[in-house]
Amino acid sequence: MATITLTTAQALTRFLTAQQVETDDGVVPMFAGLWAIFGHGNVPALGEALHAVREQLPTYRGHNEQSMAHAAIAYAKQMRRQRMMAVSSSIGPGATNLVTAAAVAHVNRLPVLLLPGDTFTNRRPDPVLQQVENGADPNITANDTLRPVSRYFDRITKPEQLITSLPAAMAVLTDPELCGPATICLPQDVQAETADFPTWLFDPVVHRLERQLPDAARLASAVEQIKAAKKPVLVAGGGVHYSLAVDSLRRFAAEHQVPVVETSAGKGALRFDDAMNAGGIGVVGASSANALVRDADLLITVGTRLSDFTTGSRTVVSSAVPQINLNVAQMDARKHNATPLRGDARLTLEALTKALANWRSEADWVARVASEKAIWAKTVAEATAPGEGLPSDAQVTQVIIDAADPDRDVLVVAAGSMPAEGVKLWPAGHSRAYHSEYGFSCMGYEIPAGIGVKMADPGSEVFVVVGDGSYLMLNSEIASAVALDQKIIVVVLDNRGFGCINRLQNACGQDPFNNLLDDGTAGQTPKIDFAAHARALGATAEHVGSLTELGDALQRARCSRNSYAITLDTNAVDSMGGGSWWQVGIPAVSDKPTVTSARAQWQDTGATDQPY
After folding, report:
1. How far apart are alpha carbons 113 and 325 in whole angstroms?
2. What is the CATH number of the domain that holds 533?
3. Domain containing 282: what range?
4. Dist. CA 303–CA 332, nearest whole Å
5. Under DSSP, is residue 264 helix (H, G, I), strand (E, B) or coil?
6. Residue 64: how many CA atoms within 13 Å on its side-chain side?
7. Are 327 and 176 a contacting pair, CB within 8 Å?
8. Of 160, 175, 207, at which residue does a domain stop?
9. Exposed, middle or buried: residue 25 (CB in 10 Å: 0-12, 13-18, 19+)?
């Protein structure tokens, strides 16, 4: 057997450059790059190896390990999991900074390869700089914090272990069901040690999207269940995108006249102006979608994990209505006591379309879609119309919409109010037009994600809309966007705190406390000049004082070749209606009558005896 002597780090990088993927554009490298912040735990060996392959595997440097991983995750999401990136950190805080991002990838089922440095396996210099010592178990290191949020986890203690570990990690990263973060820990001494690796390990490997047809009997049963329905609704989740099933879903909806509602991850499955698109579902959804789902006699969910924001804490989507769950994941296919239909979304939708032949839902049901959308359009018009005082998030969103090209541009949002307004308002003219991280709802995701999205869609204007709270959490990658010439347009909505959670707090009968900067709990917080801060990081930036000024500034931002930040003051009170009930933990007993009243109202509104 032919072999080659390499260090662990050299073998790793050579393996990564050999991974390819077949896409609509042909065969391309699977890994579009690797993000790294070097420290003593990864620069001597892995740094040397990365330098040698820098033409095939570009190394990008960020300013925070979490934000680098967010950029990598966003890239993979925007590329529909066909291509991905890796992230390297040193040991200690560099590694633990990856935990939040790993959880984002785990919950959203997105591929990212995490390569944290680790302490010495020989233990001779222990305790080394940044080492977490555990007197009861010396095998535990800081990297073990990544175990519960990794889909695959390994610690390389001998170079030869890469021969089995790397293919196993790739199997997880490319599996439609198991997809998520893979973590391979690289102890400092082992990174530099050598072994004789078989040359076949570095032969080019072309990965292809694996597609699974459902069991024939299950498919036949689902067909009969659909044919018996008069008022079905299809719930489109993120799996529609990852299966590249957008066209198949559109044909299914059009040929069988089945209304489609979209989750946050599924938005863009149908064009915003498609007659069968009833809008976003659930807590952050539209009244049009929620009304149809409540009255449906069958729900067909496709590629969704049915989170509480989608189901309205099981008051909109529940086991009370017959349900077919089309999903590659066993766990999701069987939720809500549904008829499980395990299979690839595209192949299964095509099979259903063929088997259903000329079957259609009732004409009155199809007409209901248009009438509900007309009612919702009035709600949108009222919420987005300019008014007195500081603008709302909805009003700001409408101005951005007016400045954007719905057939090309992308909106990036995460956490807080904007994912609600985005899923309700943003006109997704193409399947990648809406990029929302609302599975883990991670504040700070937005700006680094904008870079990942821009890398994936260089021809689009990428609008990153972020609240002042999220901006203050993780803004350093504005400097990276400028340095890497990855232009993003950042719109900072300054409502002086965590406005979304303040509204929830008030709705629970409580007084404002520890959310808004001006309620006193945060001390005398100054008025922050976010535009000056963004300029200090290299962006072109300006503060605007009105919606009209915002529209003018967005045009200047579009014309700019540099990353551009626009800041404006917004109100922390107004939010759009249209959503559904959401289960939260309001105290059952309180000295405040307003809390007790809120508890009673919450129970009545949510009908707490809802089906499981």
Report:
1. 29
2. 3.40.50.970
3. 216-374
4. 8
5. coil
6. 20
7. no
8. 207
9. exposed
Q: What is the mean pLDDT of the chain?
A: 95
pLDDT band at 607 (very low <50, low <70, confident <90, very high): low
User: What angle (nearest 5°) sits at the alpha carbon of residue 320, between those of residues 319 and 325?
Assistant: 40
Residue 139: Cβ-neighbour burial (10 angstroms; 0-12, 13-18, 19+)? exposed
Count of residues making up the chain: 612
Does 232 lie in the same domain as 163?
no
In terms of domains, do 169 and 188 share one? yes
Here the CATH number for the domain that contains residue 235 is 3.40.50.1220
Q: How many CB atoms lie within 10 A of CB 217?
A: 8
Query: Is 174 inside a domain boundary?
Result: yes
Compute the distance between CA of residue 216 and CA of residue 121 in angstroms, rounded to an integer.
51
Tell me the CB-side half-sphere exposure of residue 439, using CA atoms within 13 A: 22
Does one domain contain both 298 and 262? yes
In what side-by-side order are the strands of the sheet with 232-236? Answer: 277-280, 260-262, 232-236, 298-302, 323-327, 339-342
Provide the CA 117 distance to its chain's centre, in angstroms: 26
List of long-range contacts for 458-461, beta carbons under 8 Å, 24+ apart: 459/408, 460/408, 460/409, 460/410, 460/432, 461/404, 461/405, 461/408, 461/409, 461/410, 461/489, 461/558
Q: State both tokens at 403.
A: 């400045």
- C-alpha–C-alpha distance, residues 121 and 138, integer Å: 10
Type of residue found at 402: D
Determine which of 243-252, 422-431, 494-503 has the lowest per-residue pLDDT on average.
Answer: 494-503
Q: To which residue do tokens 């047809």 refer? A: 213
Do residues 410 and 301 share a domain? no
Instruction: Say if residue 452 is exposed, middle or buried (CB neighbours under 10 Å; 0-12, 13-18, 19+).
Output: buried
With a CB cutoff of 8 Å and minimum separation 6, the contacts of 605 are 581
Instruction: List pLDDT tens digits, range 50-66.
Output: 999 999 999 999 999 99
Q: What letter represents residue 211's amino acid? A: R
Same domain, 449 and 301: no
Q: Where are the beta strands (DSSP E) in 208-265?
A: 232-236, 260-262
What CA–CA distance (Å, rounded) separates 390 from 381? 18
Residue 578 lies in a domain: no
Nearest alpha-carbon partner for 60 in 451, 410, 444: 451
Query: Are both 198 and 229 inside the same structural domain?
Result: no
Nearest to 252 by CA among 228, 273, 230, 226: 226
Q: Which of 161, 187, 207 is the last residue of a domain?
A: 207
pLDDT, tens digit, 9 for 90 and up, residues 490-549: 999 999 889 888 888 888 889 888 988 888 777 788 899 999 999 999 999 999 999 999
